[in-house]
Amino acid sequence: PDFTVINNPGEISKNLIDATEKAIHGSQNNEQIILVEGEEDLAVIPAVLLSPYNTKVLYGQPEVGIVEVTVNEESKDKICKILNLS
């Protein structure tokens, strides 16, 4: 992995947000892997919100497999509405 962070259940830690920001904006490599030790369920939220449009965010979902989210206005708006940010 390019980054390893610890994240507690039901939280989005500052370390997770910082690693996501560095992976997106601080690297020459277009493919970055963030290993989350602990709870990773909410990691997709900062990944989508911080990524530029047309980025592909991939994550694993039990009993489904790999899920791909294309970052666009709709995906960002959906997260903001769920979190009451819009």
Features of this protein?
86 residues; alpha+beta; two-stranded parallel sheet; two-stranded antiparallel ribbon; 3 helices
Structural description of this entry:
There is one protein chain. With 86 residues, the chain is of the alpha+beta class. The chain has 3 helices and 4 strands; from the N terminus they run βαβαββα. It has helices at 14-25, 44-50, 73-82, and strands at residues 3-7, 34-38, 56-61, 65-70. The strands form 2 sheets. The protein has a two-stranded parallel ribbon. A two-stranded antiparallel sheet has the order 3-4. Strand 3 (56-61) and strand 4 (65-70) form a beta hairpin. The chain is globular, with a radius of gyration of 13 Å. The model has no long low-confidence stretch (mean pLDDT 92).
In short:
The chain is of the alpha+beta class and 86 residues long. 34% of the residues lie in helices and 26% in strands.
Task: Report on the biggest sheet.
Answer: 2 strands, parallel
| Secondary-structure element string | EHEHEEH
The rounded distance between the terminal residues' Cα atoms is 33 Å
Radius of gyration: 13 Å
Structural class: alpha+beta
Mean pLDDT: 92
Helices and strands, with pairings:
Blueprint lengths: L2 E5 L6 H12 L8 E5 L5 H7 L5 E6 L3 E6 L2 H10 L4
Parallel strand pairs: 1-2
Antiparallel strand pairs: 3-4
